Amino acid sequence: MKERRVRFTATAHRHVDRERTWWLGNRDYPDLFATELEAATQILALLPGAGTPYTLARLSDLRRLYLEKLGCHLYYTFDDNEVIVRAFWGARRDRGPTLR
């Protein structure tokens, strides 16, 4: 099993910052956000195929991993060397993120 580098795009960083700000202002368990995001990042580094294909975007080979405790998906692509997280998006929204 090969561990891949996990990289967040600028868009994904903005999404994470927005969700973190909301989480810290509205939830009783502030540490849960960082804990869950770190666990998901580790899963993607070791098992990038763990997510499910997401075919509703123009980006080929896009997958998403559901973070149950946060109610969000990480949208990502990967190759043999790295995982690129492209969005961090609330699962309760009526649509997925716009990605190119």
Would you mind describing this structure in some detail?
The protein has 100 residues and is of the alpha+beta class. It has one domain: RelE-like (YaeB-like fold, 2-Layer Sandwich). Helices cover 34% and strands 27% of the residues. A five-stranded mixed sheet has the order 1-5-4-3-2. The mean pLDDT is 91.
Give the total of domains: 1
**Average pLDDT figure:** 91
- The portion of residues assigned to helices is 25-40%
The top-level CATH class is Alpha Beta
| CATH architectural grouping | 2-Layer Sandwich
Summary keywords:
single chain; 100 residues; alpha+beta; YaeB-like fold; 5-stranded mixed sheet; 2 helices
Give a brief rundown of this model:
The chain is built from two helices and five strands. The chain is of the alpha+beta class and 100 residues long.
Give the helix/strand layout.
Blueprint: E1 5-8, H1 10-26, H2 30-46, E2 52-53, E3 63-67, E4 72-78, E5 82-90
Parallel strand pairs: 1-5
Antiparallel strand pairs: 2-3, 3-4, 4-5
